[in-house]
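Input.
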Amino acid sequence: MSVGKKIKLYLVENGISQKWLSEKTNIALPKLNASLNGERKISVDEFANILNALNVDANTFIKNKVSM
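Output.
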């Protein structure tokens, strides 16, 4: 699952609207929506803004694959 889709799922599970996230991050709603639907990639700056707005760690959306 893409990072955008994981963020979208997080929003749904936590009752957070894309409009709210758009306002908090200053990412235009159509641009945010396209990112969350996998139609465009999220920039590093946008990802950082999303993490700050949601007050979560990057590990919430990125799973580290460690092989031993």
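The helical segments are 3-13, 18-25, 29-36, 44-54.
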